[in-house]
Design a protein that fits this description.
alpha/beta; 6-stranded parallel sheet
Length: about 350
């Protein structure tokens, strides 16, 4: 039997991925690459990393990364997420131009599924197992170049790669490499690039906006909501802009130097509330992951958990005050004006 409950708050703190946007397939593909790179089970790595900052996850799974290298490693990883998100429509079957893979091999054949039977299903076709032998770090000898993925993206748009041993770089990628330069490619590099092409372009992993999000955001006055995400700025702003969400002035990302810790610590939500000028205890948090839900609860906020990335059974013991299937089940109504305004939320349960 369904019923409704209502309550009032001063402001709203949104998580991003899995709450506002769905880029799970691209994220899983990127972490699947990391898993294969370090010789671990993709399902394990994906489960362990969800809802946490890339900097914390990379420190855990790739402890050899030095502190002064971490920012560029995080940026490169998050660029890889967006690359996976865009590849199908830019270079694969979803594009209007021929990709190298499609022009030479027809429909790309994906690698065999590595997804175990007990893995959590994604809202779209799972990509957690999609990996070619070797990881991103093995694709070239210069993996630390910050613009490496721009080079791969350029190469994917060229039809001559599979046949030739060189590639024309359409844009500068690092010091010493000039626009229009001819860069030799080894056979191993070429084969790995073709595997990357098949992997990246074969599945539609584009970012999508989740149900009820557009209506919810449009119903909340400016200055009364923020985003607090475990993604760094590259990934967070990239995801939101891809689905038509303008990142609000208060968008707390994982690379914010004011943060002492990421989720499941409450720091991101506490900082977001402070920047809005409200007490977190008088705010509402929307979250989807266990670590994010726990962070919201620890901040003292009211927490609504959405079952968009996890089954209800996986999040029902994390302390959320309400659990709904999607944001469609929640309505916001501003009451009052100016500083006296409060936000009335009604949840259909």
């Amino acid at each position: 039997m369904s019923y409704t409950e209502s309550f009032f708050v001063d402001a709203v703190l949104f998580d991003m991925d899995g709450t506002l946007t769905d880029s799970i397939s691209a994220v899983e593909a990127a972490w699947g690459k990391v898993a294969k790179d370090i010789g671990q089970d993709p399902a394990h790595v994906i489960a362990a990393t969800h809802g946490k900052r890339a900097v914390d996850n990379l420190a855990q799974f790739k402890p050899h990364i030095k502190e002064h290298e971490m920012d560029s490693e995080v940026n490169a990883f998050e660029e890889s997420i967006l690359f996976f998100a865009d590849a199908y429509n830019k270079h694969g079957p979803g594009s209007r131009q021929n990709s190298p893979a499609s022009s030479t091999t027809g429909t790309p054949a994906l690698t065999p599924s590595l997804t175990p039977s007990n893995s959590t299903p994604s809202s779209r076709q799972s990509s957690r197992a999609s990996s070619f032998a070797g990881g991103l770090s093995q694709l070239t000898a210069f993996r630390r170049r910050p613009s490496f993925l721009h080079r791969v993206s350029s190469l994917l748009a060229l039809t001559s790669i599979p046949q030739g041993d060189t590639a024309v770089i359409e844009s500068p990628i690092s010091e010493g490499v000039q626009e229009g330069a001819i860069v030799p490619m080894s056979k191993e590099e070429k084969h790995q690039l073709q595997a990357w092409q098949l992997e990246a372009t074969g599945v539609d992993r584009s970012v999508r906006i989740l149900p009820g999000v557009k209506r919810m955001i449009s119903s909340i006055p400016e200055g009364r909501y923020a985003v607090a995400t475990s993604g760094a700025k590259t990934y967070a702003h990239g995801c939101m802009t891809r689905v038509g969400i303008t990142p609000p002035p208060v968008t707390i990302t994982a690379d914010d130097k004011r943060l002492k810790a990421g989720k499941p610590a409450p720091d991101p939500f506490l900082l977001a509330a402070e920047c809005l000028g409200f007490d977190a205890k008088r705010c509402l948090v929307f979250e989807d992951s266990p670590s994010g839900i726990r962070a919201g609860v620890a901040s003292g906020a009211t927490v609504i958990a959405v079952c968009t990335s996890h089954e209800r059974s996986k999040i029902e013991n994390c302390g959320a005050h309400y659990i709904v299937e999607t944001m469609d089940r929640v309505v916001c109504e501003p009451v009052g004006e100016g500083a006296d305004m409060r936000l009335k939320f009604t949840v259909s349960l």
